[in-house]
Amino acid sequence: MAVWIQAQQLQGDALHQMQSLYGQHFPIEVRHYLSQWIEGQLWDAIDLENPQEEFKAKRLLDSLIQELQNKAEHQVGEDGFLLKIKLGHYASQMCSNLSSSSPVGGMMDSMSQKYQQINQAFEELRLLTQDTENDLRKLQHNQEYFIIQYQESLRIQAQLTSLATLPPADRQLREPALLSKRATVEAWLTREANTLQKYRLDLAEKHQKTLQLLRKQQTIILDDELIQWKRRQQLAGNGGPPEGGLDILQSWCEKLAETIWQNRQQIRRAEHLRQQLPIPGPIEELLNELNSTITDIISALVTSTFIIEKQPPQVLKTQTKFAATVRLLVGGKLNVHMNPPQVKATIISEQQAKALLKNENTRNDSSGEILNNNCVMEYHQTTGTLSAHFRNMSLKRIKRSDRRGAESVTEEKFTILFESQFSVGSNELVFQVKTLSLPVVVIVHGSQDNNATATVLWDNAFAEPGRVPFLVPDKVLWPQLCDAINMKYKAEVQSNRGLSEENLVFLAQKAFSSSSNNPDDYRSMTMTWSQFNRESLPGRNFTFWQWFDGVMELTKKHLKPHWNDGAILGFVNKQQAQDMLMSKPNGTFLLRFSDSEIGGITIAWVAENPNKAGERMVWNLMPYTTKDFSIRSLADRISDLNHLLFLYPDRPKDEVFSKYYTPPLCKFLSWFYVCVCVCVCVCRFATVNPDPASGNPTYMDQGASPAPVNHPHAYGIYPPMSDSMLDTDGDFDLDDTMDVARHVEELLRRPVESQWGGQQS
Length: 761
Prior knowledge:
- Belongs to the transcription factor STAT family.
- The chain is of the alpha+beta class.
- About 50% of the residues lie in helices and about 15% in strands.
- The chain is built from 22 helices and 21 strands.
- It is elongated.
């Protein structure tokens, strides 16, 4: 709101320039009345060029329209009447504009229609509640008048009784009038009693109709909207779009709570009127039924809106601090904060969670000890939220259950149970609320992280709403798994470039040991959990997931810019790389992830076979890993290797990588020392070919680059190397090549005069 306050201070041309930004597409009144909300949203977090963020944009824009509709609804008074119409018109207009112009317009229109239906239902509930309130007041007024007339009847009867003490003449004179009056009053009372009974039955029927609509509305909000929010929250754990805020859901739940409470109070007042004036009939049973129904409705609302706003980490390491936030969406409306409840967190096993949902006695068992596991809920006046922030929890110890079959510790699921107790309405209703976190996997060492992440990924991706904790299918269709790992990959690498169809075919070939390049061949295939992360890939000592996770980690830490640039093909096997490169000029290279090593990337390039004239072949460097890139970056390594000329298919390497080269730090530091620089080289490409003109060996990596950049001077100081650097597949051993780099470094450390005696001047 601070920005808008500053904008209101503008004058002259600046003011006119600011006004020109607004128009029919976004009226300035919307900016004014929603200024605080607008400035509280993360508009810049949405990448307008990324189609994957359409859903996030849709939710944010729809929230804007919902806020505008809410603002319109709360306008009262003479001035508020016109503003209500105006803001409502703007909301409808924005819905229409988005539907016609936005690529997500159709989804926006559908979402807005759903929100509009919910708001219309609330308006209908408001009118019904107001109607029953008016009927209840009318009933109360008629009943009070009935009681007055009943008292009049008793007074007449007392007068008739007192006539017995009068002389017969006086009694005969006054008795007929009293008898006539009593008959008239009793006839009226009989008619009015029937009328009151009808009023009571009519009121009960109207309450039944209201409660039916309340149940329907509550089902839509709790079983549809809130469950969808929880599902989005779970998918966000796999890298899906953020689940979105809870403000709209809370506003709906608060409207439900307010309407339910009003109707509950009305039913209680109707019961009080019945007790005040009992009239035989079915009303007593109807009121008991209504009271039971309304209590069930409010109980379901309160227990369902006790939710986890911020989930604890799903891979939970012992002796490590973690946080979580729980929230009661109806806490402010029901005044729960007047006596702030305390929330307790406990870790329980999958079996204990099942027993808890079956209401079986778990004897307050837990599966571990959490430090700092109690927190008082706090009410935030500005936002109207009631929440408990656990900021410094730590799992001190864990008690594991007996494992089943081949299940490992990283497949065992736990959950954090949050529970509390509080009263509503001056202790009229006492609620015990509980909620379970998403499943967590407990580890004691960082080496278990990747396997634990696999368990969490599978659970988040394939869990079904309302499941028994924490059952997931043992096998899923390959396209379903592709969606899950693509979502995870983009989130981990923080890239808009996801896995292409060709990448997914490569992964399918790896997962199913297949050679088919047709994506359709894999659409109906299923992958089991065992294939995913229990059984090793053929001929390897790691699973499919462990290999894929290694690729993600390497890309995230060291290769993200190159992946985003499209410089890394990555998901290509050795044979495919050879087929692709053999049709290209010598010096063409590509980058692919290693098949044989977790978290490795190799450079494959095509060049002449020095052992056989006229024959070309594809060479593969031993894979680089995180350890290697911590010494020298990928771009610098490619720069060092001068025999690499073109990135596949035909891009000069410096055009692609030069912006990532590390500039030279220095030349000579003094007369006695030179700057140390570590470089990568392949000292003996295959065999040393003597140069008859110079008598010195020639190396493939001494060729010129098509667009060279400045490199440190290369001195002829390399010692003779044997062919042991090459493996049987033509791969280079990185350790051997780095020995050369270290030798260069050692030579450069020597004083200048001892190494290049006469070069100083």
